Design the sequence.
């Protein structure tokens, strides 16, 4: 099992953005997207390659190194997973960014939250209230066949909240996702990001 995981993580690479860095302006600046993708995400990718050292520490019963590397790999592996999904969660307005979900997902959101506007209000409130850095996620809970919201600290992957959860939409509330443009106005960033949300992708996943 671990050997398979090691092979998988050793081949992790930085995915291309499905649009140009400046394509989400004015909601998200091109400078932020370039740094976010090519610096922050690239760092997470690079650090997932520490897994062979973890396997060595396990084989040598090196508990201290084992604990340290597990934490590092969870953080960076989660960062890679979360960001790889996040890039697909966004799309330029010209390509449908901000257009509301229709059909099955739209109906599920209405059923669970009352309306899309209510879901957005809830996610914005959770994102604004999150202390420190993390993510606000809308997910499908297959075990109960419902749409649900989760908040994640730092770069925890959604699986830490439940094995049956599948992420549909993730909003990044790390400062590196908005600070160059919005400074400390996280609420303004949260309001504007919905203009470029790719509900079509979320609907396909759902």
Sequence:
């Amino acid at each position: 099992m671990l050997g398979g995981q090691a092979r998988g993580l050793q081949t992790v690479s930085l995915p291309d953005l499905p649009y140009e860095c400046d394509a989400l302006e004015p909601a998200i600046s091109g400078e932020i997207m370039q740094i976010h993708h090519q610096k922050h995400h690239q760092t997470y990718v690079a650090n997932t390659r520490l897994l062979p050292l973890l396997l060595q520490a396990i084989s040598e019963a090196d508990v201290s190194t084992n604990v340290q590397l597990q934490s590092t790999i969870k953080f960076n592996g989660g960062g890679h997973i979360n960001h790889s999904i996040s890039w697909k969660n966004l799309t330029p307005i010209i390509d449908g960014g901000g257009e509301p979900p229709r059909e099955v997902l739209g109906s599920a959101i209405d059923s669970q939250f009352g309306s899309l506007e209510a879901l957005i209000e809830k996610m914005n409130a959770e994102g604004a209230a999150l202390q420190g850095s993390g993510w606000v996620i809308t997910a499908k809970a297959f075990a109960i066949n419902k749409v649900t919201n989760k908040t994640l600290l730092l770069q925890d992957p959604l699986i830490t909240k439940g094995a049956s959860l599948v992420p549909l939409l993730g909003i990044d509330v790390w400062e590196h996702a908005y600070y160059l443009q919005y400074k400390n106005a996280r609420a303004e960033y949260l309001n504007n990001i919905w203009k470029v949300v790719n509900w079509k992708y979320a609907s396909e996943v759902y």
User: Anything to note?
Assistant: The chain has one domain: 28-205.
